[in-house]
């Protein structure tokens, strides 16, 4: 009797990624967020440099709490992407490939990105 090879149904919400996998996915997501938001950030920067009236408009837009939350989210994306990028460069250089070290650096990446975002976000708020 021949066994049937049936397709496997994967329950995506129930899959548990290890912490290095989460850091990898967040690194990609933060890179996309930064790439997509780059025109907006350049537009804001160009507007602040053109005239005093444009700078006053910029200040009134940035003083909105929703805009501040978006900018803090972009700050997290930048910090996480930078820290994770350094981690991946070290992994490419064959540093920290051991399982415990890889998990520890992944945890450090998550915590450092969040802590730096809270510190810089509170300072800039």
UniProtKB/TrEMBL annotation:
Cofactor: heme
Cofactor note: The heme is bound between the two transmembrane subunits.
Topology of the protein relative to the lipid bilayer: Multi-pass membrane protein
GO cellular component: plasma membrane
Residues that hold heme according to the record: 81
GO BP terms: tricarboxylic acid cycle
Single GO molecular function: metal ion binding
Keywords recorded for this protein, A-Z: Heme, Iron, Membrane, Metal-binding, Transmembrane, Transmembrane helix
Regions that span the bilayer: 25-49, 69-90, 102-124
Location(s) in or outside the cell: Membrane
Top-level taxon in the UniProt lineage: Bacteria
Main location: membrane
Quaternary assembly: Part of an enzyme complex containing four subunits: a flavoprotein, an iron-sulfur protein, plus two membrane-anchoring proteins, SdhC and SdhD. The complex can form homotrimers.
Biological role stated in the UniProt entry: Membrane-anchoring subunit of succinate dehydrogenase (SDH).
Similarity comment: Belongs to the cytochrome b560 family.
The protein's name: Succinate dehydrogenase cytochrome b556 subunit
Organism: Uruburuella suis
Organism lineage string: Bacteria, Pseudomonadati, Pseudomonadota, Betaproteobacteria, Neisseriales
Gene designation per UniProt: sdhC
